[in-house]
Amino acid sequence: MEHTLFGKHLIINASAKAFPLASRLYGILMHLPNHLAMQRLGQPSVFVTPKSCMGLVVIAESHISVHMISDSDRVLAWIDVFSCKDFNASKVINYFTSELELSQVSSKVLIRCQEQQGDRLQCQEAGATHQNSEPQLERIL
Prior knowledge:
The chain is an alpha+beta fold and 141 residues long. It is 18% helix and 50% strand. An 8-stranded antiparallel β-sheet has the order 2-3-4-5-1-6-7-8. 24% of the residues are buried.
């Protein structure tokens, strides 16, 4: 049985007290790749509107993104860290929880590993399967 490893995908859902300042989110996205011994491929992009804030940094290993929206009396946060290089998910969760003052944090880690079984590719951790390289979307969270 042949295995092809593609990396780790950390998905974080949380609440926050408020949006971070654009400069704060920029700093977080500047610092985290270095903290994980990963290489940034450019400067982070940060966008702020009255009801949302988004940030993205592309790394040699893939990307880190943050999306936060205002929902009535709370701020919802969705964070993705995907890397073909292994990283400590708990360290990343703790970092974002501390830096963005997150609460009600839930997370899931997907190991992007495909197993070849005849003409079928199977993603071991997510359980999604597809035939002949035709993607089948699956709701993860």
